[in-house]
Amino acid sequence: MFDGDMTICGPIEVSPLRQWLHAPGNEVPHGLGGTPVVDLARAALEAGRHVRIFTLDPAVSSETVLAGPRLTIFMGPFRARYRARDLFRSERRYLRNAIGRERPAVVHAHWTYEFALGAMESGVPTVVTAHDAPLRVLRLLPTPYRLMRTVMAYEVVRQVRFLTAVSQSVAEHFRRYFRYSSSPIRVIPNGLLEEWFPGRRGAAECARVIFASALNGWGELKNGAGILSAFALVRRELPESELLLFGAGHGAGEAAERWARPRGLHKGVRFLGAVEREVLRRELSGRADVFVHPSREESFGMTIAEAMALGLPVIASRNGGAVAEMLEGGACGVLTDVQSPVALAEEMLRLAGDPELRARVARAGIESAGRRFGMKRVMAAYTAIYQEARQS
What pLDDT does residue 2 have? Predict the structure, then answer.
């Protein structure tokens, strides 16, 4: 699938990689998360390659090295507070020194913040993948923390030679607002492993349609309030329907339920919260009929791609960053105004009442996800850029 070892600098979750480590899973730090990075590493390991990962974790106070026959994870401290005040100086210093010490031929850094800056400061040829649109995030989350991260993104753009983006929307953001023109921005979407393409039976007519959504964090950006309000309207027409809510902040007793319950918007909702990806995949594949993604902004949207691959018809934002791009302008999903609970509920009811439409949208989603997001295609595209960076 690609030649040479792989070196990654980015946030990871250690648990999905523990089978390639000597230490048992319950003896290792958790990590910061980072699904696309983990899946990229898994793809390389499953292909028989050697992988090095440079990352950070709030649970370690000094460098921790986790190792296996073909995987080595170098993990440095990640401050719990005040890290943005000095633009993540100590985190960047650790990454710079660790990468500089190991001297890989090329390093692939993820997100245009501390991981990209630390990798570039090491002097090793660096490929940077932009996973979000900093100014759009800042507009939706106008905090000092986000402002400082935007400053870091500007510094990355000033230095980086090999920049990729997970969507055309993100690439255009960096070209237009960050004036990046050093080289073409290659668009390479996040990849999906084969386990997300199990195939799916056609949709059947049923009295109890189950909707699902997976949102990482409660707030204006992910718009959990929007889907709860819309689902309450759906329940007026389909009182037996259910909504499965996954993701941080959406578990029992967490922010979503605390907001919904006093407003009477909790009926028929199962607040399942953050779960392992394997559990999410099993629940979506085995139980859900329609996937609803109410987020106001996505630079890619891993859960959208995963739902498509699993054969779930997706409802998402018409104006949500890269969402319309992912759903090919509505050719393989349903686009609507997610900021209007009425508009969102209308599309949920339309899909619920038309099993043939659900099946048609699901088939289009599977085909599109396989054609664009399959990991082999993604790895081949990255390999070409690694070769360019090595030769620079």
Answer: 42
